[in-house]
Design brief:
The chain is α/β, with parallel strands linked by helices. The protein is built from 2 helices and 8 strands, in the order βαββββαβββ. Strands 1-4-3-2 form a 4-stranded mixed sheet, with helices on one face. The protein has a 4-stranded mixed sheet with strand order 5-8-7-6, covered by helices on one side.
Length: 125
């Protein structure tokens, strides 16, 4: 009956600007738009809906309750990291290794946490 996650949403004060950031920074593409909402699709098919936000954002720390980050897989960590550096992305620390995986956290145009991950071994299917 349940087949998986179709998409998840981020509320943004400027959905178009944030959608365009994902396009220009992470090679996503805008694959659908309606009424100020933007669906951006990653090269692997994952979809984020970016909707108009209302009110002030809450605290945004890596461990506060709620959704905390978007993990973006890469097949060449060093090349992807260098490309983000060349685009002026704001990193939240230095790259590091965790159980054989290479990671680095950074912020999107709205300050949401994103991280690159290159896995030595894929997660179980």
């Amino acid at each position: 009956m349940f087949t998986g996650i179709e998409h998840f949403a981020i509320a943004s004060p400027d959905p178009k600007r944030l959608a365009e950031w994902y396009v220009s920074t992470l090679s996503f593409r805008i694959n659908y738009e309606y009424g100020g909402n933007y669906f951006v699709k990653a090269p692997n098919g994952a979809i984020i809906e970016i909707i108009p936000g209302q009110g002030e954002p809450g605290p945004n720390e890596l461990k506060t309750p709620g959704m905390r980050h978007i993990a973006v897989s890469v097949d060449n960590f060093d090349t992807a990291y260098a490309e983000l550096q060349s685009k002026g992305v704001k990193f939240s620390g230095q790259p590091y290794e965790n159980t054989g995986n290479r990671l680095v956290f950074f912020e999107d145009a709205d300050g949401n946490y994103v991280h690159l991950i290159e896995r030595r071994t894929p997660l179980p299917a």
